[in-house]
Amino acid sequence: MTPQIGKPAPLFEAQNQDGETIKLSDFLGKKVVLYFYPKDSTPKCTDQACNLRDNYDALLAKGMVVIGVSADSAKSHKKFIKKYELPFDLLVDEEHELCEKYGVWVEKSMYGKKFMGVFRTTFVIDEKGIITEIIDKIDANDHANQIM
């Protein structure tokens, strides 16, 4: 079932860049910005992550926790975080379980080649675990404002 606004967010448990288990239920009572992106250190994904980093204090002030998800490894996430000084967790989803749960693991096409990949999407989840917003037309350079 595809996640929908007004419905409970699919529960998840995944490892972050440091091998720690992160669960959606850990954040009850807080708003969660769960953003799915295709690949660490690619231009648009870097712009998006840096925009969230640069506006992190404003998001925190609104009671929001930011969590990124891609199919990259913990090692890749660690390098990405270190290089761009990202202040939030990135979850490892190498088996695409989380991406599939949220309906963002889709067939894509580039230069005439079809392949499976992550469709850049952000879910805003309220304090009770309900999806309040789904942003699928991402402006990588102004994403924090789209969320706020």
Number of helices: 5
State the share of residues found in helices, binned by percent: 25-40%
Strand order of the largest sheet: 5-4-3-8-9
Give me the oligomer status: single chain
Instruction: Calculate Rg over CA atoms.
Output: 14 Å
Indicate the CATH architecture: 3-Layer(aba) Sandwich
What proportion strand? 25-35%
Going by CATH, the homologous superfamily would be Glutaredoxin
Structure description:
The protein has helices at residues 43-54, 56-61, 74-84, 97-101, 143-147, and strands at residues 13-15, 21-23, 31-36, 64-70, 89-92, 105-110, 113-118, 121-125, 131-135. The chain is α/β, with parallel strands linked by helices. The protein has a single domain, classed as Glutaredoxin (3-Layer(aba) Sandwich). A five-stranded mixed sheet has the order 5-4-3-8-9. It has a two-stranded antiparallel ribbon with strand order 1-2. Strands 6-7 form a two-stranded antiparallel sheet. The chain is globular.
List the helices and strands and how they pair.
Elements: E1 13-15, E2 21-23, E3 31-36, H1 43-54, H2 56-61, E4 64-70, H3 74-84, E5 89-92, H4 97-101, E6 105-110, E7 113-118, E8 121-125, E9 131-135, H5 143-147
Short description:
By secondary structure, the protein is of the alpha/beta class. The chain contains five helices and nine strands. Strand 8 and strand 9 form a beta hairpin.
List the defining traits of the structure above.
single chain; alpha/beta; Glutaredoxin; 5-stranded mixed β-sheet; two-stranded antiparallel ribbon; globular
